[in-house]
Amino acid sequence: MVYLYRGVNKDMDLINGGLLLPAGSTTKVVMLADGKWKCDGTIIAGECEHNAARAHQKDGGLYDAAGVSTTRSVAQALSFATYAGQDGYVYVLDEEVLAELGVVMKEFPDPEHLHEEEVTLLIADLKPVPRAAIIHKIEVLDGKPTRPIPRK
């Protein structure tokens, strides 16, 4: 089993009702000639999921791209879960179940933030990450998980 992780602080988790919601309103975008991109093959001409994931990784919500950021790194998920010094949660997601449910997962060899090990999830109907793909929600208190976080 291969896992992805999503770290969320308690305030954000409460606001989202315990759901992993996409930011933005479209899973396909056209990149703009606004100086944010180079013509080096990073982006693709036309409207597509590839561009939506690239935009989301550069700046969540850029061009209204609807993605959910996840990571392959437990340490990075813990960092996001404790954002602004808060306690939070690490969600553990099953990559196989996500694929079976039709969730598009985009990971790039040259990501915007290399240390984050981001895998951007794009969900066609803009619904939350399917509960069937969430295998654990682990509380993080004072920077430490309250139980072991499963690893690949």
Plain-language structure description:
With 152 residues, the chain is α+β, with helices and mostly antiparallel strands. The chain has one domain (3-145): ADP-ribosylation fold (Alpha-Beta Barrel). 20% of the residues lie in helices and 24% in strands. The chain has four helices and seven strands, in the order βααβαβαββββ. The chain has a four-stranded antiparallel β-sheet with strand order 1-3-6-7. A three-stranded antiparallel β-sheet has the order 2-5-4. β6 (134-141) and β7 (144-145) form a beta hairpin. The longest helix has 10 residues, at 49-58.
Key features?
4-stranded antiparallel β-sheet, ADP-ribosylation fold, 152 residues, 4 helices, 20% helix, 3-stranded antiparallel β-sheet, alpha+beta
Helix/strand layout:
Elements: E1 3-9, H1 10-15, H2 49-58, E2 68-71, H3 74-81, E3 88-94, H4 95-100, E4 104-106, E5 118-122, E6 134-141, E7 144-145
Antiparallel strand pairs: 1-3, 2-5, 3-6, 4-5, 6-7
Q: Please estimate the helix content.
A: 10-25%
Main β-sheet description: 4 strands, antiparallel
Percentage of residues in strands: 15-25%
End-to-end separation? 6 Å
Poorly predicted tracts of residues:
none
Number of domains: 1
CATH first level: which class?
Answer: Alpha Beta
Strand sequence of the main sheet, in spatial order? 1-3-6-7
CATH T-level fold name: ADP-ribosylation fold
User: Mean pLDDT across all residues, rounded?
Assistant: 87
H/E order of the elements? EHHEHEHEEEE
CATH architecture: Alpha-Beta Barrel
Number of strands: 7
Describe the global form: globular
Number of helices: 4
